[in-house]
Amino acid sequence: MVRLRIFLFATSLLYPLDHSSAVTLPAEFLNDAVAGTSTGSQTGPITTNPTPGVNASSAGSQASTSNDYGIPRISAMASSTAGWGAAADSRLTYYIEFNGALGTVTATVQSFGAIQSSGINGTAEVRLNVDAVNDPSNPNFNHTLFLSPISESLNAISNPNPTNDSFTINGPITFWANEVYMVQMIITVGAQDDGSASAYVDPFFVAPVGYSVSILNTGIGNSPLTAATPIPAALPLFATGLGALGLLGWRRKKKAAALAA
Predict the structure, then answer these.
(1) Phi, psi of 234 (to 5 degrees)
(2) How far apart are CA 243 and CA 256, in angstroms?
(3) For residue 247, how far is the Cα from the chain centroid?
(4) What stretches of 15-170 show up as alpha helix (H) in DSSP?
(5) Which residues constitute the domain of residue 107?
(6) For residue 142, what pLDDT is reported?
(7) 13 found inside a domain
(8) Is residue 94 part of a domain?
(9) Is 221 among the domain residues?
(10) Alpha-carbon dihedral sign for residues 191, 186, 92, 118
(11) Please, which residues bridge with residue 56 across strands?
């Protein structure tokens, strides 16, 4: 009996005890858009509630965000003419878990992110981070292991040469099973004096056989794209990114069909 207890204790140090969804955290949203003169005041809406998007426009500039939390994906754009400026932000933070046998789980992560900037002054940034949540209720969980399994970021500045960049994730990532992870999506774009910028990001998680993916926040999905993704207007340099997105969507549908078979 003593040996059995020692074995169970040692195992608990290596593999966290199953305390599925011990951490309950609300999703966080941010959307704002501003437009106005490049040297004067700029006005527009801002909200921390879930929204399909916000818009701001002036005589010479416009900005908007466009979101679909059921996928989830977020995007934003800003454009301006000489003497005008605009900016937009879209952010989403939510929480996931991979439920199944104790230990580690190798899940398939697929994600696409893209940015573009053009004109005299266009700036864009996109970030996707997945981090383990510090859960004080589980002292056995080693948070230094697989602490940040995903960290992707892109930045673009045009002055005046246009910039296009993208990242694609499509492969295995190791997580702790039955532990909470935070997924953070951040987009910031800005345009001033004949500039334009846009950005987009979308993650998708596929659990292996014997495990399931749990989204711990109501209203947040985990779906592959099955149709053309709506994005804000005035994104003239997104053709390359959308082509890659179409390929990623095809791969997702193929993967989903294989898992359902």
Answers:
(1) 65, 45
(2) 20
(3) 18
(4) none
(5) 25-260
(6) 55
(7) no
(8) yes
(9) yes
(10) positive
(11) 63
Whether the CB-CB separation of 210 and 174 falls below 8 Å is answered with no
Q: Please state whether beta strands 73-80 and 61-68 pair in parallel, antiparallel, or not at all (unpaired).
A: antiparallel
| pLDDT averaged over 10-residue windows placed end to end, the chain, 261 residues | 34 41 79 88 92 95 96 96 94 96 92 91 93 68 63 83 90 90 96 93 95 96 65 41 38 42 46
In three-state secondary structure terms, 244 is helix
Of the candidates 28, 174, 183, which has an alpha carbon nearest to the alpha carbon of residue 95?
Answer: 183
CA distance 57 to 163: 24
Torsion sign over Cα 222, 105, 246, 55: positive
How wide is the angle at C-alpha 68 spanned by C-alphas 65 and 72, nearest 5°? 115
The count of structural domains within the chain is 1
Phi and psi for 251 in degrees, rounded to 5?
Answer: -65, -40
Residues in the chain: 261
> What ranges in the chain are assigned the alpha helix state H?
2-14, 239-260
